[in-house]
Specification:
mainly alpha
């Protein structure tokens, strides 16, 4: 029976040692898994950012092409540009001022 007690104690110690090692392995595996998950997440976030940047560039290019084509069509239709409308507005204002000056000078000449 002494031998059985000793064997049982040895078995218990061995089992306890194996259980402690198993806990360490599980903890280390969890830490390794979390590190890999975090690394994968960072890669995914970086790639998503790159994809967003490429998408924004592509949309910007499409907008520029669209604006150029619309401008070309508008010019072909004979619609004046914004600059041309401003220039004509200035000319109309100058003409109105000249007409007003002529009216005043004529009314003085009559008086």
């Amino acid at each position: 029976m002494a031998r059985t007690k000793r064997t049982t104690k040895t078995q218990v110690r061995t089992f306890a040692s194996l259980a402690a090692r198993a806990r360490n392995v599980v903890e280390n595996a969890g830490a390794i898994a979390m590190a890999r998950v975090n690394a994968a997440r960072e890669i995914a976030v970086d790639r998503a950012g790159e994809a967003r940047t490429r998408t924004v560039k592509a949309v910007g290019q499409l907008e520029r092409v669209f604006e150029q084509r619309v401008s070309t069509v508008v010019r072909k239709l004979g619609v004046p540009s914004q600059g041309e409308v401003r220039a004509l507005s200035r000319q109309v204002a100058e003409l109105q001022a000249n007409v007003e000056r002529l009216r005043r000078s004529r009314s003085r000449a009559r008086a």
